Amino acid sequence: MKHFHLLMVALTLGLFLYQAIVVFVGEKANPSPMLRRAMHVCYALLLVSGLYMFTVWYQFMAPWAWAKLVLFIVAVSATAKAARPSTTPAQAKFGMLLATIAYVAILVLAVKKPLGLL
């Protein structure tokens, strides 16, 4: 399951980077329906596999895991709002910047697993 989760992490980050590049280059941030479906599937599988690993391996959710879950929700929400056709280019860039910060924080928490948050 860990390998599957890491595959979903790589796919999610790849799709996010593609969409962020499109936004920061200045093109319209509205992704194609195929890309939108792929992002939804990756988000769902990433969330389900992560929650499954924590319930099976740890039998509880550590505080840093809750922080990763909240940051993931922030990243998905900011990405979705940046991809709306009604957003201005400045709003889309800010949304992608916020999502980038959230994804970087998730990766830091995933690597460090801070024990101080217990």
List the helices and strands and how they pair.
Blueprint (H helix, E strand, L loop, with lengths): L1 H24 L7 H26 L4 H20 L6 H24 L6
Helix pairs in contact: 1-2, 1-4, 3-4
Which tags fit this structure?
single chain; 118 residues; mainly alpha; 4 helices
Q: In a few lines, what is going on in this structure?
A:
InterPro entries: SirB. This protein has 118 residues and is an all-alpha fold. Helix content is 80%, strand content 0%.
Number of helices: 4
Low-confidence stretches: none
User: Looking at the structure, what is the overall shape?
Assistant: globular
Q: What is the number of beta strands?
A: 0
Strand content: under 5%
Q: What is the count of structural domains?
A: 1
Biggest β-sheet description = none
What string gives the helices and strands in order?
Answer: HHHH
Overall average residue pLDDT: 85
Structural class: mainly alpha
| Helix fraction by DSSP (H/I, runs of at least 4) | over 70%
- Gyration radius (Cα, Å) is 15 Å
Report how far apart the termini are. Answer: 25 Å
